[in-house]
Design brief:
Elements (H helix, E strand, L loop, with lengths): L1 H36 L2 H11 L8 H16 L4 E6 L6 E13 L3 E2 L2 E3 L10 E8 L16 E4 L19 H9 L16 H24 L4 E5 L29 E4 L1 H12 L5 E11 L6 E7 L10 E7 L9 H20 L7 E7 L7 H10 L15 E6 L7 E5 L6 H9 L7 E3 L8 H6 L4 E6 L4 H5 L12 H20 L20 E6 L7 E5 L12 E2 L3 E6 L4 E9 L2 E3 L20 E5 L1
Parallel strand pairs: 5-6, 6-7, 7-8, 11-12, 11-13, 13-16, 14-15
Antiparallel strand pairs: 1-10, 2-3, 2-9, 4-8, 5-9, 10-12, 14-16, 17-20, 18-21, 19-20, 21-22, 21-23
Helix pairs in contact: 1-12, 2-7, 7-12
Length: 608
């Protein structure tokens, strides 16, 4: 028996040594291929300079998808599919426009049309009127024909106070993020935790609410709408996320011609009006709507797994192929697509034979409420309201997303899953030992739909550079703001990390007590009376690592409840009611406690 133990030990030791040597060889091959034959900037230029911008549903977007398909084939990747996500989505593109002030003097106005708005039927000229709020338009009924309206709801004047346009993350802030115990603290990044189902509800509600205003303007024969950019130095921020939403479906309204104009010129026009001067503008917009279902596709490609028992399991790397329209979509997000394409190319060229399938997904319509990834998730992963599973739900080990600009990858948002920290630390030690791992959540990009299904889904932490200060959804979203060295390094890291996850004996661990479906079975009963008008009530606690929306309660006749199976011990909790942190109202205020980690208003709960 002792002899057999020694033999088994030697076998395992030799096997581990061979595996380590193989991983070292793959890492070396990836780096060598990247150094001598990187294609990442060529890919970026093709997607942005040649095929940009890539607004969803347009010929540009579709041609970018076709080019990507051919490029993958030229690299020897044969499993490629253009998967439809069409649900009546439409496209829109600018053909020509101009905005000029004709009185009190002539001035060219830096401007860009807002997507999915109508043409002007030629050059139009009219007096400019300022609206401090959208609702103030209704008091001007009968006085708006032939006028151009300035929308002041989101206007904040810019100034020459120093704006640090380009930044890299300091060691100090990275260390703070890594040591942060609360995933809901926004130490780095841009977006705090939110309820995924409510994202779709809110966006659709905003569109519906604005229809009255936009239809009123059309019926009053207003010539055009002007929205101020919120960026300084003449930068034009042109998306559908402020006063004028994007109406993206066939059959939606077509708002009258609308433009974002430079903040400084908006301010000048407003000052003229306040002085009693009536400025006049000449405007023109020629735009094309498209209703071609074939344009609405995700690009899906993969390197099939080599292990017969594991090849049906997936490691997915993804980015969104679509962009907004005023730049070429180089930074947001051709840079992410180029990195993910290059990562797949590096794996193929290095001869890697991953045990699991490594799949590339380039999504369409991310900027339009995740149109592409939402269709994929609902078809293959799980329902976006109930998370009732589809066939891939149990097969995905990880989803890695790149969509925070073009800066160097500095770490990974672990999305409140502490079990992953030692796993990723071990994987990255040989490649990038300084890569940080923070429990913090990150949202507002495609990975959150996978996270909602309790799949280990991650956004990479990147140096911000000038992403949010100058480039994000603006006319400066161009090739020049994508650092080549960062792109190359990012592709190497993604390739190696995806390979490592594909080689694991097991799938990556998923978060505990995390499901969009309320649990009604277990030894611990949580309930709250009232809040019957709420849309969603969740339990947030130390046992679910302060996951704001991962442990929902079911609605009852007089309140909300759930049951969970918890180990014996003391726990601290409170509720999230429609996004608001709420103490248990049945706990007297003098009995509420703090945990010493920033959480207050907590109720103690014992499981025996």
């Amino acid at each position: 028996m002792q002899h057999h133990k020694i033999t088994l030990f030697l076998f395992l030791f030799v096997f581990q040594q061979i595996a380590a040597q193989t991983e070292t060889a793959i890492l070396s091959a990836i780096r060598q291929e990247s150094a001598r034959n990187s294609q990442v900037m060529h890919t970026l230029s093709q997607l942005s300079d040649v095929h940009g911008p890539r607004l969803m549903g347009t010929p540009n977007y579709y041609k970018a998808a076709l080019w990507t398909q051919q490029q993958l084939k030229s690299w020897g990747i044969t499993k490629i599919d253009l998967q439809s996500f069409d649900r009546g989505h439409r496209g829109w593109a600018v053909q020509h426009f101009q905005v000029e002030m004709t009185a009190p003097q002539y001035s060219h106005i830096p401007a860009y049309p807002l997507a999915y708005t109508s043409s002007t039927d030629g050059i139009k000229e009219g007096e400019v009127i300022y609206l401090p709020s959208l609702d103030s338009v209704y008091g001007l009924s009968g006085k708006l024909q032939g006028k151009i309206l300035m929308l002041g709801s989101y206007y904040q004047p810019v100034s020459n106070v120093y704006h640090p346009f380009a930044q890299r993350l300091s060691p100090n802030i990275l260390q703070q993020a890594e040591q942060n115990p609360d995933p809901n603290d926004l130490i780095i990044g841009y977006h705090s935790r939110r309820s995924t189902p409510q994202v779709f509800q809110l966006q659709n509600l905003i569109r519906k609410r604005r229809e009255q205003f936009l239809n009123f303007c059309k019926n009053q024969k207003v010539l055009a709408l002007l929205e101020p950019s919120d960026f300084p130095y003449g930068i034009l921020h042109a998306d559908g996320n402020r006063a004028i939403p994007s109406y993206i479906r066939v059959g939606d309204i077509q708002p009258i011609a609308s433009f974002v104009i430079a903040n400084e010129h908006f301010g000048r026009l407003l000052r003229l009006i306040k002085m009693g001067i009536k400025p006049r503008l000449k405007v023109e917009l020629k735009a094309q709507f498209y209703q071609e279902p074939k344009y609405n596709v995700n690009v899906i490609a993969e390197i099939e797994g080599s292990d017969p028992l594991l090849k049906d399991e997936l490691v997915i790397i993804g980015a969104h192929l679509d962009s907004w329209h005023s730049g070429t979509g180089a930074v947001d997000n051709a840079s992410g697509c180029a990195v993910m394409l290059e990562a797949l190319r590096l794996l193929k060229a290095s001869g890697a034979k991953p045990k699991r399938t490594i799949r590339l997904a380039l999504w369409g319509g991310e900027e339009q409420i995740f149109a592409g990834s939402a269709a994929y998730v609902e078809q293959k992963v799980g329902d976006l309201n109930t998370a009732s599973p589809q066939k891939e739900q149990a097969k995905i080990s990880a989803y890695f997303n790149l969509d925070n600009g073009a800066g160097k990858i500095r770490g990974i948002y672990l999305m409140a899953n502490p079990e992953l920290k030692p796993i990723f630390a071990s994987m990255l030690r040989a490649f990038a030992p300084d890569t940080i791992l923070t429990l913090q959540n990150a949202n507002q990009t495609d990975h959150e739909l996978f996270d909602f299904q309790n799949i280990p889904a991650f956004q990479f932490i990147q140096d911000p550079l000038d992403y949010m200060s100058a480039v994000h959804h603006t006319n400066l979203d161009l090739y020049e703001y994508v650092p080549a060295k960062d792109q190359q390094t990012n592709a190497e890291l993604v390739a190696y990390l995806a390979y490592q996850v594909a080689q694991r004996a097991d799938l990556l661990p998923r978060k505990k007590f995390n499901s969009p479906i309320p649990s009604l079975v277990g030894n611990a009963h949580f309930q709250v009376k009232g809040f019957l008008q709420a849309q969603q009530v969740s339990l947030v606690s130390d046992f679910n690592n302060w996951n704001m929306f991962g442990t929902p309660l079911a609605k009852t006749a007089d309140g909300w409840e759930c049951r969970l199976e918890l180990p014996p011990g003391k726990y601290l909790y409170k509720f999230i009611v429609d996004g608001d942190w709420t103490a248990d109202p049945s706990t007297p205020s003098d009995k509420l406690v703090r945990d010493g980690k920033g959480h207050a208003g907590l109720t103690e709960f014992w499981v025996k």
